[in-house]
Design a protein that fits this description.
The chain starts with 7 loop residues before the first helix and ends in a 26-residue tail after the last helix. The chain has 19 helices and five strands. The strands form two sheets. A three-stranded antiparallel beta sheet has the order 1-2-3. A two-stranded antiparallel sheet has the order 4-5. The protein has 727 residues and is an all-alpha fold.
């Protein structure tokens, strides 16, 4: 089995090679006329300026953290100063994954606009291929980086020893630095990018659409370039770093628990359960590439959503089939983890459960956010009676939308655990994330289509072009929401696996909520997603106020803007969003990183009958449950508000009367969309990073706050728990 580890980086390389080929194809497409290219240049330059400013700040953070990790790595026998290098590599690759997405998006947007002058199918091909570049870049870098580092650390610490021995423990703990670096950068990139994009979007909407009555992406609006830049730095670069971190954390959590598996069998070395999640991720890249071949439409009336769904389902089915043969080949017939016995087929059914949970989460999220469905229609109907009822309707939809996803997650946790214990929960998350390249391709094509529509509007292209880009953009809103639902679902399963790994390394047997310090930590943990969201949303509000004032000033003080005789000062709006996002992203990030350290080290030895590790476990439980609920609520409410607004652009029937753009119900829907913007693009998507990052920090410091006790294994599961009926 040792030879298999050398194949893993090759999967990542294949993804990167195909990414390069598809990137070259997108770049070779027609970029349109001079005016279109000029506008695209403004967007690309603004996006790059933001990334440079963000990277400058994050470089200081990464260097300081790496030095701290290098020092701490010398204090424990199970760790090493090399964890600092692992951290830096994870941070750099996470930032680079975001850059890959942003770079191709700023090229694909104008080319999608030009393609839309020809046909809807051509526009979909360009925008989706741009998204595919990002998806393969993220997955390829993650698998290549993780696989290569594992090979290096294996030979440094574990080669020749037992796969369950101290050498492997050290190798995986050092590898945890890679995940910590990836998730740390992801949090700042997602929060900073989210603040940027929504400050510009809210400012552009409130003054442009509501006050001035001009279209969303009108060239006369000074904030429109900043708005389009925001789509790239938030929904693309931030999302790329986000999914890179999620992907790595899921694989790592499974590897940590795989190291605990005990088994005996012919040829079984103990490496198989550790390598399995990386192999599944590698095969997932290949199947995602195959799935992209199914994303095709034939005419103007074709259903874009169905084409994307076909590609997604194809990659998932291929992953499920391959996993069946993979577990039979790699795993022994019987295994156990912490006294919990299971078979190789149990592992397959756990993987299958993860795929089913991921599919159900996407279906449920699509239902609550798609145009023409009951939830969005209910918001449209409430818009007829004003702004307040629109807000009430959107909040109600968001809250209602938590029910089915939580029940699905709960069932998935129970079923996957019944098959293979805690390893089953972790491998279910790994199975769910296997097709990340495809999920991200579907997700990233939305912002590209949104930018394409903006360029079409600003360039004054024919209405049929904007209709095609609006078609793609409306689907993109739904796919963005389903992608975020998918991410929060994987975060819930991954955080549970990381939590189980933390329990093992910290030496605690259980978390007793009847102990006052643990209960207090549980409440504090449940509070953190709220204060985190408050800081993020408030940051958007403050930056949006500055943006509104600047747009109003330009409309008032620069004569000729409304008559197309003067060009707005776009760069000033870009500067407002850039400065605000860099300034405001620090506090939410500090909360996620410092809170586990404060609980873990600050309360060590304070309470005689309660360890700080147990308190930290209570904190993680609180933040995970609260964060998952907040993430689902905000993502779905924001997505539903957005598509309710877009429905008016095509015309909606409310009580027998048709309403269109600039009508009073449409203005109410714009207000709802404005409220939903920071929900779905700033604080909501940050929840999955928040809960995983705090779990990873806890895992890294777990050995330092360990109680010194060995984990007490649970009793083997009874035969009735095999749930034969599920098979």
């Amino acid at each position: 089995m040792e030879k298999i580890m050398y194949i893993i980086p090759a999967f990542g390389l294949v993804g990167l090679i195909v990414m390069w080929a598809k990137s070259a194809w997108v770049t070779s497409q027609d970029a349109g006329d001079e005016k279109m290219q000029e506008l695209a240049g403004y967007i690309a330059n603004g996006a790059m300026a933001f990334l440079k400013a963000e990277w400058k700040v994050l470089t200081y953070f990464a260097i300081f953290t790496a030095l701290l990790l290098a020092w701490s790595g010398t204090l424990l026998e199970t760790s090493s100063p090399v964890i600092a290098i692992s951290f830096l590599i994870g941070a750099v690759l996470s930032a680079f994954a975001g850059y890959i997405g942003m770079n191709i998006a700023t090229k694909a947007n104008v080319r999608t606009t030009q393609a839309a002058r020809t046909s809807l199918s051509k526009a979909l091909a360009v925008s989706f291929t741009g998204g595919t570049v990002m998806g393969l870049g993220v997955a390829g870098l993650a698998v290549f980086g993780l696989g290569t580092l594992f090979i290096i650390f294996y030979h440094m610490y574990a080669a020749g020893g037992s796969p369950t021995g101290p050498g492997m423990v050290k190798a995986i703990e050092v590898l945890a630095g890679f995940s910590l670096g990836a998730e740390s950068i992801a949090l700042f990139a997602r929060v900073g990018g989210g603040i940027y994009t929504k400050a510009a979007d809210v400012g552009a909407d409130l003054v442009g659409k509501v006050e001035a009555g001009i279209p969303e992406d009108d060239v006369r609006n000074p904030a429109t370039i900043a708005d389009n830049v925001g789509d790239n730095v938030g929904d693309v670069a931030g999302m790329g770093a986000d999914l890179f971190g999620s992907y790595v954390a899921t694989i790592l959590a499974t590897m940590v628990l795989g190291q605990e598996i005990d088994a005996s069998g012919d040829g079984f070395s103990g490496l198989s359960p550790i390598l399995l999640p990386m192999v599944i991720a590698g095969l997932g890249i290949l199947f995602s590439i195959a799935g992209t071949l199914f994303v095709r439409i034939s005419g103007e009336d074709s259903n874009v959503q169905n084409a994307l769904n076909l590609g997604n389902w194809s990659s998932m089915i291929l992953t499920a089939v391959a996993s069946f043969f993979l577990v039979k080949f790699m795993l022994p017939e019987t295994m156990s983890i912490r006294g919990f016995e299971f078979s190789s087929m149990d592992v397959f059914w756990a993987i299958f459960t993860g795929l089913v949970v991921g599919a159900l989460m996407s279906i449920i999220t699509e239902y609550y956010t798609a145009m023409g469905r009951r939830p969005v229609l209910s918001i449209i109907n409430r818009s007829s009676t004003g702004h307040a009822t629109n807000i009430i309707g959107g909040l109600a939809v968001g809250m209602e939308s938590t029910v089915l996803p939580i029940l699905t997650l709960a069932a998935g946790i129970i079923v996957s655990f019944s098959f293979a214990g805690l390893y089953g929960v972790a491998i279910a998350a790994a199975g769910m994330m296997a097709t990340t390249a495809m999920q991200l391709a579907i997700d990233a094509f939305g912002p590209i289509a949104d930018n394409a529509g903006g360029i079409a509007e600003m360039s004054g292209l024919p209405e049929e072009v904007r209709n095609r880009t609006d078609n793609l953009d409306a689907v993109g809103n739904t796919t963005a929401a389903t992608g975020k639902g998918f991410a929060i679902a994987s975060a819930a399963l991954t955080s549970l696996a990381l939590f189980a790994a933390f329990v093992g390394v910290s030496g605690i047997d259980s978390i007793d909520i009847f102990k006052a310090p643990v209960l207090a930590a549980l409440f504090v943990g449940a509070m953190i997603p709220f204060i985190f969201s408050a800081l993020a949303i408030s940051a958007v509000g403050r930056a949006a106020m500055d943006m509104v004032k600047e747009v109003r000033r330009q409309f008032k003080e620069i004569p000729g803007i409304m008559e197309y005789k003067a060009k707005p000062e776009y760069e000033k709006c870009v500067a407002i969003s850039t400065e605000a996002s860099i300034r405001e992203m620090m506090m939410p990030g500090a909360i996620a990183l410092l809170t586990p350290l404060i609980i873990g080290f600050g309360f060590k030895g304070v309470f005689p009958d309660t360890s700080s590790a147990e308190m930290l476990g209570g904190l993680l439980a609180g933040v995970t449950v609260s964060g998952v609920l907040m993430g689902i609520f905000m993502n779905n409410a924001g997505g539903a508000w957005d598509n309710a607004k877009k429905s008016f652009e095509k015309g909606v029937n409310i009580d027998g009367q048709m309403y269109y753009k600039k009508s009073e119900p449409h203005k109410a829907s714009v207000t709802g969309d404005t409220v939903g913007d920071p929900f779905k693009d700033t604080s909501g998507p940050s929840m999955n990073i928040l809960i995983k990052l705090m779990s990873i920090v806890a895992l890294v410091i777990g050995p330092f706050i360990s109680t010194g006790k060995k984990h007490v294994q649970s009793a083997p599961k009874a035969p009735v728990e095999k749930m034969i009926v599920m098979k």
